[in-house]
From TrEMBL, chain A:
Record organism: Hymenobacter taeanensis
Lineage: Bacteria, Pseudomonadati, Bacteroidota, Cytophagia, Cytophagales
The UniProt record lists the keyword Mitochondrion: no
Keywords annotated in UniProt: ATP-binding, Nucleotide-binding, Nucleotidyltransferase, Transferase
Gene Ontology molecular function: ATP binding; sulfate adenylyltransferase (ATP) activity
Record's protein name: Sulfate adenylyltransferase subunit 2
Record flagged with keyword Cytoplasm: no
Domain Phosphoadenosine phosphosulphate reductase positions: 30-256
Cited Pfam families: PAPS_reduct
InterPro entries: PAPS_reduct_dom, Rossmann-like_a/b/a_fold, SO4_adenylTrfase_ssu, Sulfate_adenylyltrnsfr_sub2
EC assignment: 2.7.7.4
Automatic annotation (TrEMBL), chain B:
Cited InterPro entries: CysN_GTP-bd, CysN_II, CysN_NoDQ_III, G_TR_CS, GTP-eEF1A_C, P-loop_NTPase, SO4_adenylTrfase_lsu, T_Tr_GTP-bd_dom
NCBIfam families registered for this protein in UniProt: CysN
Keyword Membrane attached: no
One Gene Ontology term of the molecular function aspect: sulfate adenylyltransferase (ATP) activity
A single BP term in Gene Ontology: sulfur compound metabolic process
SUPFAM superfamilies given in the database record: EF-Tu/eEF-1alpha/eIF2-gamma C-terminal domain (SSF50465), P-loop containing nucleoside triphosphate hydrolases (SSF52540), Translation proteins (SSF50447)
Protein name stated in the entry: sulfate adenylyltransferase
Domain Tr-type G: 1-211
Pfam families tied to this protein: GTP-eEF1A_C (PF22594), GTP_EFTU (PF00009)
Highest taxon of source: Bacteria
Organism: Hymenobacter taeanensis
Enzyme Commission number(s) from the entry: 2.7.7.4
Taxonomic lineage: Bacteria, Pseudomonadati, Bacteroidota, Cytophagia, Cytophagales
Signal peptide: none
Record keywords: ATP-binding, GTP-binding, Nucleotide-binding, Nucleotidyltransferase, Transferase
Length: 303, 428
């Protein structure tokens, strides 16, 4: 009998399901960090493949910054209901009040760094020992260095010099009390792989991923930021209405849109094949602060 | 489209990170914004430092060396690649082992001015030990030796001697300059005497990830029991097929208990299928209501692995704390975690010559042959027979750290004298 042929999407899928099942087998109280973005949506599909007809052995956890796109929140609630899985939402707003944190100021007030506080609070509240996230190594050069099972200390800190060797597909999730493990099942996927998988699996996404008309403010970099109540506009800001879509869904205050007519997943894949700018480069305002922006945030507990 | 996973190895300063940077750059796999960030940091002579594409940590940029494994991805019209950029520094050999454990091919870099050196031998042998069978000898920095054919020929001959001596498959030797871009992606006019493929052409054409025709192996990762009104009795054993193929109706053994049953159903992505093969993630349902838990193996009758509580293994020791005989540790054999003791270090392997030498202890980065006793029986094959069921890690019970990579060399069931106990779940 000839060996069946598996293409790279089959292999990536099998690897991710294997990792999810290792989490279920090794940890007492795991959680799946769910933002409503495409990567975490793909994780929920992989979890269905890993655990159905049973239930997920973990809840979905959303750290809501209060600066989310409303379409994404609607999608989040619908998906959790359709899956019949538990959704835990914790808000950065509440953390700010409770810990008396200072709100970021400026014209485009990103709450991204504050997410870490809420994440660490929710980990403590539910005593999560493993948090599954949709981060990919192709996103950023510090991420490219991170293990699939990434051990964090009780402050959530990542120490890149003290990472455990990770051999074959044997994942070591043994930790001390207070530590937790961040697990990245789609580490080896690229942005294009995620879209091809969405196409293959016919996964529904929030509308903002597809081309639509939106009123935006033009940033000095030329990037377009969707207009929202959280932005502090000046009189001389240029406001335009353009056909745009989002390549990534973070906070509305730090996630730029790209101009696009793409109305289907196929169109988006064609867009990406021609794209000359990386996903984060095109859309994120918060990674370019310094050469080690992402590394430093991860050292501080960012997911 | 298929996938090739490869690792780059060689000594520090041989130009591994630059080579990967060049592969990505010349194959137009670098985004404009990443290039712009790179150009901001360009050297005083105006050239872009391609190594910065992979050296992503602050400490790496400070020291100009690679400390930890980086993974990079690129695609050509012919193939998709996952590159593992492993450190060359002796101090970080354990990270090189990490990278080699998942690779199909190794590019061994040699500095044309230095030729084959100790680290070339060490990395080649570690890659070979871990089962890599495709080797590329990349003779780098040819620009610094005047693109001299004789220099290349001498190094290629020296390396062939090395691979011959250790019975490794012959390497494909390619002269190149990562810095100048000669023969990495495009053929170079500086090397008219070389008529072979460029590095990328070779990577596009070698055989890719192939499942070896090994015996079927499957380990249970998780038991699915919905216990709902519609599915009150459903029990599915979820796991990844590690090797070979499984079919509905196969007579199987559950190990280590030795209970016999039959595959009643095989599910992939919630669909029942007739057959499934490695590396698919599946759910197996058995006809009989036998006791099966995480870590148990399900294998076809007559093709079972060795069941043993005593084995011989090669260890790559990865901890700063040395290993002394008598040490108690945990063996993590994929989804099984058992207590173990190492009563004896049989010998230490000289990683330059592979000669055996007596050793009282194993120090960081040492490769040693040991005897291991486990508290519960394991179902193993030798690493040579099966890269999955023959591999394991050792874990320090207190710190939780991974302290060694283990390759099963011999597992003799004659060691196994006690009767097989009923399976004891030791969940991890």
């Amino acid at each position: 009998m000839s060996t069946p042929h598996f293409d790279y999407l089959d292999r990536l899928e099998a690897e991710a399901i294997h990792i999810l099942r290792e989490v279920a087998g090794q940890f007492e109280r795991p959680a799946l960090l769910f933002s409503g973005g495409k990567d975490s949506i793909v994780l929920t599909r992989l979890a269905e493949k890993a655990f159905r007809p049973g239930r997920f052995p973990f809840p979905l956890v959303h750290v809501d910054t209060g600066h989310n796109f409303p379409e994404v929140l609607d999608y989040r609630d619908e998906l959790a209901a359709r899956l019949g899985e538990k959704l835990i939402v914790r808000s950065v707003e509440e953390t700010i009040k409770r810990q008396r944190l200072r709100e970021p100021g400026g014209k485009y007030p990103s709450r991204n760094p504050l997410q870490t506080y809420t994440l660490l609070e929710v980990i403590e509240e539910f005593e999560f020992d493993a948090c599954i996230g949709g981060a990919r190594r192709d996103e950023e050069k510090a991420r490219a260095k991170e293990r699939i099972f990434s051990v964090r200390d009780e402050f959530g800190q990542w120490d890149p010099k003290r990472q455990r060797p990770e051999l074959w597909n044997v994942y070591n999730g043994r930790i001390q009390k207070g530590e937790n493990v961040r697990v990245f099942p789609i580490s080896n996927w690229t942005e294009l792989d995620v879209w091809r998988y969405i196409q293959r699996e016919n996964i529904q996404l929030p509308d903002i991923y597809f081309g639509h008309e939106r009123t935006c403010v033009v940033l000095p970099s030329g990037q377009l930021l969707g207009l929202s109540e959280h932005l502090q506009l000046d009189d001389d800001d240029e406001i335009v209405t353009r056909q745009v879509r989002f390549r990534t869904v973070g906070d509305s205050t730090c996630t730029a849109a790209v101009e696009s007519d793409a109305s289907t997943v196929e169109d988006i894949i064609q867009d990406l094949l021609l794209a000359k700018v990386s996903e984060r480069g095109a859309t994120r305002l918060d990674d370019n602060i310094s050469e080690a922006g992402m590394e430093d945030r991860k050292r501080n507990g960012y997911f | 489209m298929d996938l090739l996973r490869f690792i780059t190895c060689g000594s520090v300063d041989d130009g591994k990170s630059t080579l990967i940077g060049r592969l990505l750059y010349d194959s137009e796999s670098v985004s404009l914004d990443v290039l712009a960030a790179l150009e901001k940091r360009q050297a005083s002579n105006g050239t872009v430092d391609l190594a910065l594409l992979t050296d992503g940590l602050r400490a790496e940029r400070e020291q100009g060396i690679t400390i930890d494994v980086a993974y990079k991805y690129f695609t050509t019209p012919r193939r998709k690649f996952i590159i593992t950029d492993a450190p060359g520094h002796v101090q970080y050999t354990r990270n090189m082992v990490t990278g080699a454990s998942n690779a199909d091919l190794a590019i061994v870099l040699v500095d044309a001015r230095q030729g084959v050196i100790e680290q070339t031998r060490r990395h080649t042998l570690i890659a070979a030990l871990l089962g890599i069978r495709h080797f590329v000898l990349a003779v780098n920095k040819m620009d610094l030796v005047g693109y001299d054919e004789a220099v290349f020929a001498k190094i290629a001959t020296d390396y062939a001697e090395l691979t011959n001596h250790f019975n490794l498959p012959a390497a494909v030797a390619i002269p190149l300059s990562a810095l100048q871009g000669d023969n990495v992606v495009t053929h170079s006019t500086h090397l008219p005497w070389y008529t072979g493929p460029s590095l990328l052409e070779h990577l596009e054409s070698v055989p890719g990830t192939l499942e070896r025709s090994a015996e079927p192996r499957f380990q249970v990762q998780y038991v699915i029991r919905p216990q709902t009104a519609e599915l009150p009795d459903y029990r599915g054993y979820a796991g990844q097929i590690q090797s070979g193929e499984y079919r509905r109706g196969d007579r199987v053994l559950v190990l280590p208990s030795g209970l016999e049953s039959e595959i009643e159903a095989l599910e992939v992505s919630q669909q029942e299928v007739e057959a499934a093969a490695a590396p698919q993630a599946v759910v197996i349902r058995l006809r009989d209501d036998v006791d099966v838990s995480r870590g148990d193996s399900i294998v076809p009758l007559g093709q079972q692995p060795t069941i043993t509580r005593e084995l011989e293994a090669t260890l790559c020791w990865m901890s700063e704390q040395p290993l002394w005989p008598g040490r108690k540790l945990l063996v993590q054999h994929h989804s099984t975690l058992v207590k173990a003791a190492i009563p004896a270090i049989l010998y230490k392997v000289n990683v330059q010559t592979f000669a055996k030498a007596a050793a009282e202890s194993a120090q960081l980065n040492d490769i040693v042959r040991v005897r291991i006793k486990t508290a519960l029986p394991l179902a193993v094959d030798t690493y040579q027979e099966n890269r999955v069921s023959g591999s394991f890690i050792l874990v320090d019970e207190l710190s939780g750290d991974t302290v060694a990579a283990g390759l099963v060399e011999a597992a003799n069931s004659e060691y196994f004298t006690a009767p097989v106990a009923p399976p004891v779940a030791f969940s991890i």
